[in-house]
Batch of 3 targets.
Target 1
Amino acid sequence: MKLRRTKHDGWYEIQSQCPICGHKGWCRINREQTIVHCMRVPSDDHFDSVIGRQFRHYLDPNAVPKTKVEIEVNKVVDKKPDYHLNRVYRALLKELPLSPMHYSHLLNDRLMEENVVQIREYRTMPVQERYKVAKSVISRLSDSSDLLGVPGFFCQEGKYGAYWTMAGGTGLMIPFRTISNEITGWQIRVDNPPLELDMKGAIKGEILEELPRDESGKRRAKCSLKVQDKTLIVELTEKDKKVCMSSASGQFVFSVELKQGQRYWWWSSGSKDNGASIGGPLPVHLALPSPCLKYWTVGDTADAIFDCSEVWVTEGPLKADKAADGLLKPVFGIPGAGAFSLLLEPLKALGCKHIIFAYDADVVNTPEVEMALGQCVEFFARETDMKLSLAMWDISLGKGIDDLLDNGYLPQVSTLLE
């Protein structure tokens, strides 16, 4: 089991599969491996945190599998305050370009206008020579120590000593803005998401190496699969699901499918020397309609230039940017449906009276999101007197609120809580 230390003594984030839900990341386990705080499988014993509701599950210490525990060495330093992050990240803006590929993606796939792409300040994380970018950022600041505690930057040992560089996969960088227009974090839409195996039933396996794509452009991988006592080395193709049924009974035995993994990643360096984690707390992104941005002074809250009595909420910063322009409303992009508690203080500061949640159209078919929505209503009913509504539409008109607006439709808004 792979674990990462957290700020809570005796608790570790599970980097391998959670023994309760089977997923990686977010869930936590105690040092004794007797209690799991799972983010996905409900239990009667739970508590709310800034990353969502966590459910306590108690493991039988005598039944815990005796597997090797690998604890990631934590060399992280505390994240700097928002004003410092903003200062460094705005210096970074001046040193990073937006690649032609990502520019084309925003124009042709995301259907953004050229002036909108420019004013929203998207950037590209380069493949090589990142240390040169970090060096140029330092030259715009007071001292190299200004990068200490800034997620994304870290120290690397080189031939002539330590130097600053940048972590993260290559891809499109999307800035997160606070309600005061401070840039306090980034997400990267990676160009080449990792592959992973989706396995169900009596099967275990791992990806050994990625292979060249097939003639149709689908990704492929050599995999090791263990079925009963046999180990098979096979080549799997993306989205080609293999299902095994018992020849004797006709019952399901196992299935395996090669899938593209997570596309969006936080720009963080919490596992690096002198790096910093993006958490504590995670950023949330406030998107205003793009014409407002040139009038939005850093340090001034958004309600000074735009009506924030009604605020929309969706998942992800890029979707929020698109929705703000399509709806002509302020839109929060949160890092996940369960991270709603992060919105409480920003919404109060903006004087919000009405929150409209615009999750993807398959919300009612996604148990985790539907559960998070119920917890969200319960939370805001307890903490505020704000009106809550849900934006709904038929999935045939578009999966996300951005797709819906691109297709020329508006959602139906239904009241959840007066």
Target 2
Amino acid sequence: MKTLMLLIAVAFISFTATTKAATSYFIDQAKLPFTAAPGATAYWGVHTNAGYHIEVPDDWNGELVVWAHGFRGFSENELTVDDHPLRYFLISKGYAWAASSYSRNNYDVTTAVQDTHALIKRFNGLVAKPDKIYMTGLSMGGHITAVIIEQFPTLFAGAMPICGAVGDYESFDFILDFNLAAQQLGTGTSIFPVEPMIYAGLTVPSIKANLESSPGSWPDELNQDGENLKNLVMMRSGGDRPNFDSSWYYWNTYRNIVTGPGNFLFDLGLSDGVMPRNPGSTVENIDVVYQFDTNPELSPEEQAFNDSVFRVALAPQSKNPNGLSQVPVINGNLSIPVLTMHNIGDLYAAINNEIAYATKVKQQGKDDLLVSRAYKGVMHCDFTAEEMVSSFLDLVDWVENGNKPAGDDYLDANNVAADDFGCQFTNGDHFLAAPCP
């Protein structure tokens, strides 16, 4: 029991700390040096308090591919650099690449955007000013990618957010939805924020016991309330789609973040919703209409749920639609070609991000500059090298030759629900992915 309480306490610290660790961020400069690929030159160092890696091929084509890494954690103090996942491919094709550690961890998109922009200036002075710059990023790095191309609309030629939080706050709101719905259906009441020790130690086990059809059958065999939760999660994360059964199983069984396997989405619910640079909670569900099925007309059961579930109002000024003063909002005002990649079963950064992004881009009248691609996986950021290379080459062809590549329509619910959704661009094995028809 003491071990459990310690883990829960660690979860509380990890998910509510914001700026307290800022002064203790550090870079181990002994870890920065790396060996250049054959026929290339490696550069590394510290710039604007962020570590960086740069690699330039001897036959450089004059173009730069920038990489934005994902979320490091709230309590991780060491700043580290992720090399571009397509590093060797890029070098072989004549592209230089650059990546920053950022000068802070945490979910601090603003700092990451500023440090990434500073790294590009560093590249200009260290190597040369590129003819073209492609912006790429993964997960939180997708959020960074979508923000930086809007903040500096003339700097980049094209962008590729990968499994990105391109719906800005959609992922946070989904975690709120999951945990409030689980509480309401599993215990008959709901509250936010939760008291972490009580929630993880008592409430979550009670939720699972009350939603499974027989002892120990969570999450495979559920009673009616459990099925309602599963369906609500499907609808709030992006709607009916072909591999959601596998997605539900994976994200409620395998993932282990703090309090044990199967608690990943519950552990994320330990947060109080306060993010860096924000004065209060950034999550809300005040206007959400929850549904247990695809029928837009509310059943008596759905109406009763909507009437009783706890409602969270957004803190004033917590989402600023302009600039970098807080965790930035993505407006969808594109000026360059953007190609996104997303696993349709991902519940960490679910496809509601893609739907929100495509909606904003369309509202801006810029949908001619967006291609969204769906993949059959259930994991977060699980893509094959072939899939990533193919998408990058298609983006380059689009930028250089005007050949807009094919994509998937996230805004057509019937298309998303089709058995072959996610199959068009899937190339290789994905964990728990059902074969394409």
Target 3
Amino acid sequence: MATININFHHSVDKSYYPLFSSHDPFVAIKGARGSGKSWAQAYNVIYEMLRLPYVNWLVIRQYQNTNKESTYNTLKKVINLLGLSDLFKFTVSPLEITMKSTGQKIYFRGMDDPLKITSISAENGYLCRAWWEEAYELKSKEDFQTVVESLRGQLPDGGYYQHILTFNPWSERHWLKEEFFDEETRRNGVLSFTTTYKNNSHLDQQFIDNMMELKKRNPNRARVAVDGEWGIAEGLVFEGLFELENFDISKVQGRHIMGLDFGFTHDPTAFVKAIVKDHDIYVYDGFYETGMLSSPMARKLARSGALRGKVYADSAEPRTIAELQSQGLKTIVPVGKGKDSNVQRMEFMKNFKYHIHPSASFLVDEMSTFAYQKDKFGKFLNKPEDGNDHAIQALGYALEPIIFTNSQGKYMNYRERVKAVNDLGLR
């Protein structure tokens, strides 16, 4: 095989250099938004395959169907950036990347069925590396250990097994913290570190400005998204009421709802689609983007199914609603607002259990840091913090006809809303 010279120091920050030199069995990298941790690990995957002919990779996410648009595409982009696309074969069924000259493979799998992962056997070389992307989504420490134990066997002299975990640390209660970061309880043979947007020189100034704005507006969310620290565990509005699940929406019968919250420079526009079934809400689709003008927003809403039913939107943006309606989206309906309506809406929303599909994982991110305000004595108030709750607000608006519409089909007045919340025993 011809010698291949690659140089990617300009693409990977120095903070990630230990990732390329460590032989520790576990490397855990928690990081903020835009920290470049997934890109650095993607470079590491290709670097190791080129350098070590015995290495095959297993790339794992909680849900298999989320790999193609994330890990698979990232690795494909890195290979192209390195000018090595002729050396690899890319297939989507099965989802694999193969090095042509050696037969080494990158296998993509989900933890939907951990036992299927344990049966994989490399055709050439050894299956001795695993990249656990978005490891925060992993539901079971036991299933994780099952896969870890399945990667075993005698390797060539100098060979070693290694598991790389990359994730955003949304809650300090996650088992990843005690397993890989807490000095008193973490496993032996662990290299763990934290990175932030400061470790990524390829970010534009607007992204950095958004991070600084987030620190001012929502310190709880900024702990994770900006500083890469563990999220809070107390005072969460929706604690215990939401879970990321890979459900089949075609098998869920109930009332379809859609909601829209507007944003622009620093705040995202959030659109959610869900089905209400008794006291369970299945959020199955949507989008979450900053910088959206009304025309591209209208097109994206139309593609997302907003023409198939009413979309309840933030009434504080009448101009945007009018612009969307003028572009054919007559289904956009402003929600009612009144005294304490937002607080009442949040209290009503706590009467449901939320099943959130991976395609709407942005809602999980918000619910993981959406907390109640504190008074000057540190006591939690019955009022949520203002900040990054745009997907939550969109979902609340979507629930408008269920929550605060009276028997005449009109928006409830203040007394009617208070009674509706009290009748549920939430106040």
